[in-house]
Amino acid sequence: MSDNIIIRAAEGKWTVRAGGAVIGESRDALEVREGDLPPVIYFPRADIAMAFLDNSATVTTCPYKGEAKHFSIQTKSTVIEDAAWSHDAPIEDLEQIKGHMAFYADKATVART
Question: Where does the record locate the signal sequence feature (predicted)?
Fold first, then answer.
């Protein structure tokens, strides 16, 4: 695993909201710390209402975690473009985040509830 990344269980129950709706809740979320950046909460996809998310054409690459697919959130009134990302095939030793999804802080609200 990259010395730059620390993955641990995120304690408690976590909720993600977007467009006024709860998109997901989990007690099995992961906290991912990358260097000096703020921690990011990764939700198991099974705990996300995937019916509200659409695949995006956006793909980015992190040198530490690998390729990330992006997702847009469909709300009642708008689409929040590229609001979330997921690593389907993370770099070796970071397999814990496979099957998990994270959300951009400026596009969704993630909080411990």
Answer: none
